[in-house]
Design a protein that fits this description.
By secondary structure, the protein is an all-alpha fold. It is built from five helices and no strands. 61% of the residues lie in helices and 0% in strands.
Length: 93
């Protein structure tokens, strides 16, 4: 996954548009209000009943957290690789 992130950051400049990565991130961010609406307005900030049953959880219990900081470290590392590759690889003059 981190190699793909490297190619994402480097390849964003391949097509001759130096701001392609930022434009792509901007358009991808447009979905965030939809997720927020679905979660907080339609679902009331809770898992739907059927999802709780399928996961084998009790109402109000989201399960034991075991990963700690590792998912956040992985996300930060991936973002750092994309940004570094976008900075390092330059368009030919």
């Amino acid at each position: 996954a981190f190699v793909n992130a490297l190619f994402l950051g480097a390849g964003a400049k391949v097509w001759g548009y130096s701001s392609a990565l930022w434009a792509g991130l901007g358009f991808a961010a447009l979905i965030l209000p939809v997720f927020a609406f679905r979660h907080y307005v339609q679902d009331g900030g809770k898992f739907p009943e059927q999802a709780v049953k399928e996961l084998g959880l009790e109402e109000g219990d989201s399960g034991k957290r075991r990963a700690g900081a590792l998912p956040y470290i992985a996300l930060f590392g991936g973002a750092a690789i994309v940004l570094w590759a976008n900075w390092f690889f330059e368009l030919p003059a």
